[in-house]
Queue: 3 jobs
Job 1
Amino acid sequence: MRLRNNPEALDHLKDHGDIVYINPEGMKGKWHSCFESQDAPLYIEIGMGKGDFILENARRYPDINFIGMEKFTTVLDKALKKALKEGMPKNLIFLKDDAVRLPELFENGELDRIYLNFSDPWPKSRHAKRRLTYPSFLELYKNALKKQGEMIFKTDNRNLFEYSLVTFANNGFVFEDVCLDLHHQEGYEDNIQTEYERKFSKNGPIYRLAVRVKG
Ligand code: SAM
């Protein structure tokens, strides 16, 4: 059995309460206070997995504050261990929680950008509501994002990508950029790869979509 919420991992997360927030209450509207630079833009990756992407972003862009969000304890603990080993950037914190709780976690307009990377595709239509680009999730993102806030979505899954093009378009977002082969198209040299991206780009193209909340 795959243990995604083991108690040892939870204890380890709790030992690092200064940088890991576990199902927090009372943080809504106050996330900037977690960082040295309180005026910096706030970016979040929802479903960060083992954290390679958000960790490298935090290193590369010290003038932006980052939150890596993941719902499973054991997965988040892997990200934490890696960050501690390599050096936790001051502009990064971790959040153990589920995206369905965004309205309890973030004030309207608190986020500047949301990343969704290689979100679980949930291919069966009876599971469509679990997709992180299902309309009810897009509604939560729209509220948490600033006016004109941005989302960047990457996947190797063509069906999920096509599905998401439609849901973003029909639920209050405007397209800024659509890329059908991220690793072979010019102009994306600054792309930061995720664990899944490194694994699955061998099998076919990586799709990327950038959208903004419709003004
Ligand atoms: N973003 C990483 C990457 O590209 O390598 C991980 C991708 S993995 C397929 C999807 C991750 O999203 C998993 O770690 C999963 O636990 C997390 N996840 C799925 N649904 C979530 C939700 N509702 N809230 C927070 N995290 C979620």
Job 2
Amino acid sequence: MQTESEQLFEESKKYIPGGVNSPVRAFGSVGRSPIFIKKAKGSRIFDEDGREYIDYVCSWGPGILGHAKETVIEAVKAACDDGLTFGAPTRKELEIAELITAHMPSMEMSRMVNSGTEAVMSAIRAARGFTGRDYIVKFKGCYHGHSDGLLVKAGSGVITQTVANSAGVPEGYAKYTLVAEYNDEESVKQLFNAYKGQIAAIIVEPVAANMGVVPPKAGFLEFLRDITQTDGALLIFDEVITGFRLAPGGAQEYFHIKPDLTTLGKIVGGGMPVGTYGGRREIMQCVAPLGEVYQAGTLSGNPIAMTAGIETLKLLDAHPEVYAKLEGKTAGLAQAAREAFGDRVCVNQIGSLMSIFFTDKQVVDMDTAMTSDTKQYAAFFRYMLDHGINLAPSQFEAMFISDAHTEEDIRKTIDVIKEFAHR
Ligand code: PMP
């Protein structure tokens, strides 16, 4: 007997490539048919077969307060009554721009877009426009969305697709993307020596979370700040995951580093499709209509999306204790996983982000992440799912902990991890 999810997947495959609207959702690397989700509340998601799961995907990051937070939902419902989109400026766009600058003072000006991909693509165009340079440096295993020039040695779903670069990206375009090793200063120095004065920007996930979670080594982000400043290149922090998650002011607050440009997504949209990029005023003044870097959007700054974002940021502001609680819960979960598996795994954790890598190596970059036994991860994933716990369907993604995860949820999760580890 097929489950509802299996039936829906079969039908979806007829109309949607791979049956999904984003590749990792197909569960390709964990040997299962995906669960189709009907609804979600707090720390739980519910599938079409009526099964309930403690959710550690949290829609890949937006759900820092848990699913369907009442205050946010009520505000969104009220906003809908006033109209879904106007294509004209609104008070709410000003309000969220002010909130962003208040949290991340490096973002003196910002622009709303509709996804993290768009935010990064636009930030890079602004960096190129401002510096008059073409090359960018990214890190192997970091993911910055699916725009052409950034699908070079990218993380996230690109890893499990086993393609280093996407088909359909002209070589002449990808050649402007230079790739360095995460946490490896020497690899960055080499590029800056070889391309002196030609690099527009370094883009980095200040905490890498798309090859699994890999925190920066002490001094690495400071080094990136220094080398860009010396060369006249810009430093772009891709805080699509870390923004409002590591700290109210994101990784730049957590590590006390001021990037030139920042990209945001996920939490800033409170569950709606939103991305943002922004930074130093003189750079953002290059963007149209002020400057010659063109960037626009029919639905950018959409009033419903802005409402969800504003309410989420305001709730986080009203409950600053959330961050310490998240850190405590996540550290507890990480420690329990270390104790359960011993040196068979490497558990990386920072703030409310963590990954359990099935390797006995320290995971500090893409190469060490790739030493993980992905078959073990797949078995772990299936065991957890069968016992009511939803993890990311790939070794190379983060676990997201939300404010809605109770101590009881964490205890139950630890029990299932222990059962799996002892089998
Ligand atoms: N940057 C980072 C660091 C991300 O994690 C992601 C998505 N997971 C993106 C950019 C792209 O965002 P989106 O999927 O909203 O286009």
Job 3
Amino acid sequence: EDVSLQGYQHYMLKEIFEQPESLRNAMRGRFDDENATSVFGGLNLTPQQMRGVRRIILTGCGTSWHSALVGEYLIEQYARLPVSVEYASELRYRNPPIENDTLVFGLTQSGETADTLAALLETKRKGHRTLAICNVIGSSIAQAADGGIYLHAGPEIGVASTKAYTSQCCVLAMLALHLGRLHNLSFEAGQQLISALKQAPGAVQEALHCNEQVRQVAAKYKDASNILYLGRQLNFPTALEGALKLKEISYIHAEGYPAAEMKHGPIALVDAQTPSVFIVPQGSTYEKVIANMEEVKARGGPIIAVASKDDPHVEAIADDVIHLPDVDPLIQPMVNVIPLQLFSYHIALMRGCDVDKPRNLAKSVTVE
Ligand code: G6P
């Protein structure tokens, strides 16, 4: 065990720090620079078939469902194709209308999640083409699907998913580029997205430098009973994922919410004992999120902000600011989640929790 931990105290920490490498592996050999697009060997679809796709369904469970939400945003933004995200456990029984030109993707680290497998088999039975975005090669879901994309993230042992999540975000960003280039995305725009994607491993490496600062912030808030995670647009799935990580391994109740939706309920929870984590990088809704932060501050809630480097506005409002590199929106989900993974890790450790094997949870849920 010690050998594979490679000096790290836990698999989760090792896997968090492996992310620059796992992202490189997700992208390796998958760019076609001449055509400013990405290529996937295993989709088993011709460019004509791929171009004929009019709608995408993304399904999965847990953290994989969060990456699906990231995929929804990116594919709609860059490929202008409508995307629906479904909990696999709901999709398998819901019987929604699915048109012939819809492509169904199952997202899964393990490839063994019973609900995701059942949802894919049910859509396949109805004659739809089903694909997998999966980490474990040769797993049940990889075999059941008509094709797919492997993450190549390497074994993920910690029960709380970390590197598989960022690799899913990466593959979905590449898929958005691929679909975009079959539709409206120009050659130049394709080149820009490739260059942004290639910056992801370096930006994640830089984000990992916040580890010691995050540990100090974690020490300050480790005794909280409730923590809110708030972000907008592309940062909303990041808020959900941050909250899930904290619940999973530290057993602190946490909720992820779209920051503006907070005023319709969660703001009632805000008091001096309930910190809010705001994900507030530069971008389209930046000023709106700042306004949401002011609302929390006015009610006496402590604020931890995950923000772009050198942001005096956020500094002036938040109690603690974790600074991240300012990156293209396409790769923000991979970068912005890093301090949230580390935050949950340090809090869990300080509370004496079993980080790699949290109570009541399993790495892959093979029963319904
Ligand atoms: C379990 C794990 C989660 C994971 C989910 C989906 O609940 O504890 O970390 O996100 O299953 O797993 P999958 O392997 O399908 O991505």
